[in-house]
Amino acid sequence: MRNILEVKDVAKHFGGVKALDGVTLEIPEKGVIGLIGPNGSGKTTLFNVISGFYIPTRGEVWYNGERIDGLNPNEVFLKGIVRTFQIPRLFNSLTLLENVILTPPHQEGERILKAPIKSAWEKQEIQLAEKAVYLLKKFGLADLIDAKVSELSAAHMKMVETVRGLITDARLYLLDEPAAGVAYTTARELFSFITKLREEEGLAFFIIEHRLEVLMDFVDYVYVLHNGKLLSQGKPDEVINDPKVIEAYLGG
Amino acid sequence: MLQFDILGFLASWGTFLGIYAILSISLNLEVGFTGMANFGKVAFYAIGAYLGAIISTYTILAIHNISSPPYTTEGIIALGRYGGENPALTVGLFVLSLIIGFIVAGVVGYLLTYPTLRVGPAFLGITLLSFGELLRIFLQNYEPVGKTNGIAGIPHPFVWVANTALRDWLYVIVVLGILAIVYLYAQRVVNSPFGRVLKAIRDDETAALCMGKHVPRTKATVLFIGSGFAGVAGVLMAFYLSSVNPNMFVTTVTFNIWAMVILGGLANNKGAILGAGIVTFVDRILTFVTPNLGITAITPDYMRWMVVGLLIVLVLMFLPKGLIPEKPIDTPVWKAVRKLLKEEVNGE
Question: Which of A25, A52, B26, B88 is most buried, with most CB under 10 Å away?
């Protein structure tokens, strides 16, 4: 299968610290791929490089046949990569609907010259409304459109974050610990939902997760980072039985 | 017996309210909606005021071939003599000053964001604060703008109207008219997808960046608009007072505008006008009443700060979000979504 994302020999050094030291990996289209490793192994740094927060010291990142390292985070997003954070980062003073409707790129009304002229963007707003309603109903959030997101439950916040990504036409999702702080059953629900999205919408996911008991049941392939290098990779049961991985986790 | 010129008071209040409401709406765009702590508001106000002063006085002096600059006695006398000669010229200079004041102040605001936006909000505030002070000290020491004396003899745009009361009221109408334009524009800009992006940036810059929003460009745009409006307010004040000097543009002015925004309520254009109305009312009423009371121990200036300070404390204690709290961005999306959700219920 074609690769949607290719990371080629990426390194990121902070002074003398080699947070990433020559990482090469691939995410196939419609793939659900895990990224694990002990704390400080460079997982979030890798996400920051892919999503444009860091410029790699060495190496290249390719998305859909296009080189994207060196682009700004907003430009990476516009290419079709959504990144989420460990703790949902929503716009707290905005309502749920505003949070969702904010995300779609290329909104005419976001241009300062067009913003004061309602007729220039009204139509687009109404089209977005249709898309939003479809997703909000699918997630059971339709009753909460007026709610301030800061007042939502943690599970709802995660859903809003997902809906916010889905309303765009992004193809690749970088999820940073989606199951952290979520009850076991909710975590499983979340992952089965990811699987469903992959099948129904053809989306690809790259997921950092510490809760291996959940992650391993849902991913196709796993990469293991340790001290900025790939320690191991393979199907979930291969990786979990790899002595190097066990040692890194227990000894790390 | 108290002597109180009620019409004179209203005209004076109307002018101050209009000018300060323009300033507070523009600051609210920056602080309330976008979360940019602009502590250098006064600088852009000063730029407008000085540009208005320079354009109007030097042009009139040049037309009459007078070499004395507008900060010397000869220059001011000449301006008094020739200023009112040609109504079309005085009005024309006023309009030209408004346009140039907007553009120059706006461009300066835009350029100042360049070195600061990428390093974080505190730096922006401190840089702008220092810029304001630097500009004032520069004006204090720059010969062509009269150093500490400033520029006087700025021709009132309606100086050719013989009745002074009518002249003042015409000016009130112009100021409030410009305020209305600024208010309507600000209302439209914030109640749009652009306004939504502003609030998103205020709430979480990093997340906004991750959602594909061009954060630095958006902030620079807001500072262009906000500074441009401040420039317009400066031009209006210069033509109203007919003179400018560096002492008018101390840092206190910035915090005065902040007080208006906090009182009225952040991220709310109506609140900005209300806040400006209250603070300028206190200021004007004290200016008009205090001389009649025979109190010399406390100047109106000190009284104003005490009253405004007390108001802020009370408002923040009982209405922490200001007199008029923030409302969600009003775009057609709400109506459309509600309609779709309702149709669904009826359809089932």
Answer: B26
Q: How confident is the model at residue B206 (pLDDT cuts 50, 70, 90)?
A: confident
3-state secondary structure of B324: coil
How do strand B243-244 and strand B151-152 relate by DSSP bridges? antiparallel
Mark yes or no for CB contact A91/B203 under 8 Å: yes
Interface contacts A/B by beta carbons within 8 Å: 128
**What is the ipTM, given to two decimal places?**
0.82
Smallest Cβ distance to A92: which of B189, B197, B203?
B203
List pLDDT tens digits, range A92-103: 989 999 999 999
> Using one digit for the tens of pLDDT, what is the confidence trace for B285-344?
888 777 676 666 667 677 777 888 888 899 888 988 889 988 888 888 888 888 888 876
Q: What domains lie within chain A, and their CATH numbers?
A: 1-80+170-252 (3.40.50.300), 88-169 (no CATH)
Instruction: Please give the Cα distance from B36 to B32 (Å, whole number).
Output: 8
- Chain B residues in contact with chain A using a Cβ-Cβ cutoff of 8 Å: 185, 188-189, 192-197, 199-200, 202-204, 206-215, 221, 225, 326, 328-329, 331-334, 336-337, 340-341, 344
Sheet of A17-28: strands edge to edge?
A: A17-28, A3-14, A58-63, A66-67
pLDDT of residue A219: 94
The matching CATH number, chosen from 1.10.260, 2.30.29, 1.10.3470, 2.60.40, for B6-347 is: 1.10.3470
